[in-house]
Here is the input.
Amino acid sequence: MLFTDIITNIYPNYRALKDVTDDEILLSVAEICRVAALHRITDAYGPIPYSKIGENGELNAPFDSQEQIYRTMFKELTDAVDILTIRQTESFSPNADKVFNGNIVAWIKFANSLKLRLAMRLAYVDPDLAQQMAEEAVAHEVGVMKSNADNARIGGFGKDGNPLHRIMYLWNGGDSRVSADITSYMNGFQDPRREKYFTQSSFTANDNVAQNGYFGLRSGIMIPAAQEAQKYANYNVTPNTPMLWMNAAEVAFLRAEGALRGWNMGSESAKACYEQGIRLSFEEWGAGGLDSYLADNGRTPSPYIDPMKKNTYSGKVSNITVAWKEDADFEENLERIITQKWIAIFPLGLEAWAEHRRTGYPFFMPVVVNNSGGVVDTNLGPRRLAYPGEEITTNEENVRYAIDNYLKGPDNMATRVWWDAKK
Here is the structure.
């Protein structure tokens, strides 16, 4: 669904727009949206049809390598930013823009921020290109997102409402719940954002549970019956909640990592950018207690205690603290940055998965039940998604070529994508 639906929806609409207008502003915004959507697909699968896909979005097209795709996306974002920068004092109809209401400067900031995100993805596979693209994005005259007013969110979902609300509350009897990984980290940190992110669990005296709180479901378990699963903490989302694309907090953490690597991310230090990321997230969610949270050098993620005593994890996944440590080594402060970014970008699950694969952080509990038949390492977790059967059936020759020449590994969840290169 992820692979087929997005590609077959993006390309026909993109081509249709080009058929009805030659307005550089609208086409540049469309280019940015296309990159924003399709980088998710290549990050999940690796090589995909990209530059050679048919006019009507047919999937029986040759694949690009992920390296080719990333280089093309950088060029597309740069070209779009160049055009929009020339025309930044203009605007277009808010009726055509559910994200920024026709604000061109906001689209430039989003495109530069997206370029920075993609640049950081290459930190271990092509560090020179990563640094070049990251520094270009930050140094641009309009720059990247720096305040919550710049956040990219989309609403207006119609009668069906926010898709995440449907997933968490309506599908499969509403048995989807937030992960025990994030609730355990935030419980350990006594994070004030918990009440904004999650509903509390709703166990009763009959469940023999001492108290309720923010208890998620552990990943990789046999899913309990819906009536039991529904008692765990859930995502605090309504049908009208806008869906997040990217926020300024993420951009601050990207700049923090860049500065940690010695890249030119502006005048701020890695510490300043890191603390700004937390500050922006607290502001975004209207959470209090910021100063004490930033200064906390004692609290660490808590072990997971399943209230139903079925999937308790006795170990502690990490000893990372919140407060920045100037004397810490690179890996400790990288873990600190990625952990807080992971919390701040909730609920962007695909982005969190990509960054976990890229850096190894944050540390997660191993799955309880590994259903891969030994293909996926229980400790490493899945590295990509296998191509859907429909793609193999309708585009077999191109799929096989991509697997043999670009993916360079079996078409399974254990094979790493190109940028997943940290030793």
